[in-house]
Predict the structure.
Amino acid sequence: MVNKILIIEDEINLLETLKLNLELENYSVLAFDSGIEALKHVELFSPHLILLDIMLPLMSGTDVFKKIKELNINCPIIFLTAKNNVKDKIEGLKLGADDYITKPFDLEELLLRINIALKRNHSDNEVLSVYKFNNCEINFSNYTVIKQNGESETLSKREIAFLKLLIENKNTVISREEILQKLWNFDENPSSRTIDNYILGFRKFFEPNQKEPTIFQSIRGVGYKFNNQ
């Protein structure tokens, strides 16, 4: 499989240099000097990794990052920036960036970081491509589940994303705020009842006894938890 890398960088010379060198490393590369233009193609291209400059014209790199996450594109993102500022680095990592490299940088170092991020993401995807528990199964690749009664059903993209979030944090309570931030756009305004309805649906699919749930638990005033040993 050829890994696909999306570059968003407004310094044309650097953009062309990165594209050439990554192609020499046998990556498939799509490059843009504008975040707005890149966002028009990111879903169709479906990159395995994104190199994203923070200091972009018209739309900042952090805003581009947020838009990418709203599209539920979960590939690794490495920030590129001329800022050598701890505050900016912390801000980028808090947003959920996988790495951060300051210009000017050594090409070999960047290639190494790209390779590490891709391997880590590939490993994570392998673990969560199919998840099995209590005679049930969730396939994150094709959005299908095998329910407690043995029947198969296709879920929505958001239902699968919600299940993945719960399972990635199994046996740990996830707050309502984190769920809303990661799964809904800022302008959708879902209510707490919306999340409750998803949990009720999961219990219907996977709980042996919906009236006494042991797998998908609601923690009053805090959030939700997926229990599985």
